[in-house]
Amino acid sequence: MTATSSPLPPTRSTGLLSAIVVVAALGYFVDIYDLILFSIVRVQSLKDLGITAADEVTNQGLYLINMQMGGMLLGGILWGILGDKRGRLSVLFGSILIYSLANLANGFVQTIEQYAWLRLIAGIGLAGELGAGITLVSETLPKEKRGYGTMIVATVGVSGAMLAYWVGEALGWRNAYFVGGGLGLALLALRVGVYESGLFEQAKKSEVERGNFLALFTNRARLARYVKCLLIGVPLWFVVGILITLAPEFGAGLGITGPVTAGLAVFWCYFGLVFGDFASGTLSQVLRSRNRALQLFLVFCGALVGVYLFALRGASPTAFYTACFVLGISVGFWALFVTVAAEQFGTNLRATVATTAPNFARGSVVVLVPLFQALRGPAGLVGSAAILGLVSLLIAFWAVSTLPESFGKDLDYVES
């Protein structure tokens, strides 16, 4: 047996527009603002720091992305364990505090090394909010409504990328970091009215071990579920971390007839993500199946990656940004993926999984980037992206197809 039912009485549930859902959604909004901001201001900030050669802008940009994503890998484990040991709320607000302070400091950097270490610290902070928020929402909403709750969190949250673009363009990169840090600190004032998950409080009263990250590796079936959860999210970060972040390079390689900026590519991709997250969450409720909704979106994503790489040669910037927008819709299964991860595990490991899974998926950029660079020599810019995209999508489709369906699953149990 890997899971046992809780003998304790049922806990209270809450409504779709409760303080818990609102705070989780706004927290994810600021999280995405800060997470994506570097992709938007990458070129501008590096040039201001004295990096002017095109190849160096690309290489130093990838280095900083790797530092940020490396921080998220570390933070994912840290916050996940704390979420199951100390509670969902402590992680939700603790992570917001750290990434807010780090982003305020980012506005003062003078060297690449300062920039890199602060992106690492910011990455650690950014790792905690989404998993804690999704876990809290999933455990407090009725099981027939929790898909709608996580959809609200995602739909509101990903729109933070659009604010990041507007602020970055209007105020400059340093002020954009100041705004992000200030938004996060302001969000901490909303602690009032948010209560801890009742399922977590029940688990605290039991003698079951909580937040043991290594327990995910001591049972073969549990490990298989965990690895599959991680793999589902990789295609989204292939799209965002490579196709969208390196949009200027792809624009040049595809012979786009006008200039392409990473800021606008991120803006249109995340604008699409708003619609995609809404659609994927709703579709999973209508189909009464998380897995079928994910499968449909992965197929859609594969088709759009093909369009981006092979159907835009010589196209206009408008056509390119349109493809970024639709590509964003196709990867709008992010919150659905995190919801599935949360639903696959018991209360004593749920925050650990829901926090580490998205961050390991985000952190896959650390592996994808060197693979992309290694393949770029023999396969070229487009060929290397096509190979990585195909492999990541096929593996994700297999992972979804072999996971147990979790729609409507009772989450009142623990792993043993």
Automatic annotation (TrEMBL):
Membrane topology listed for this record: Multi-pass membrane protein
Keyword Transmembrane helix listed: yes
Positions of the Major facilitator superfamily (MFS) profile domain: 20-407
Keyword terms of this UniProt record: Membrane, Transmembrane, Transmembrane helix
Pfam families the UniProt entry points to: MFS_1
Transmembrane domains' residue ranges: 16-41, 61-82, 89-109, 115-136, 148-168, 174-194, 229-248, 260-281, 293-312, 318-341, 381-400
InterPro entries: MFS (IPR011701), MFS_dom (IPR020846), MFS_trans_sf (IPR036259)
PROSITE patterns: MFS (PS50850)
Entry superkingdom: Bacteria
Name of the protein in question: MFS transporter
Species, as recorded: Hymenobacter glacieicola
Organism placement in taxonomy: Bacteria, Pseudomonadati, Bacteroidota, Cytophagia, Cytophagales
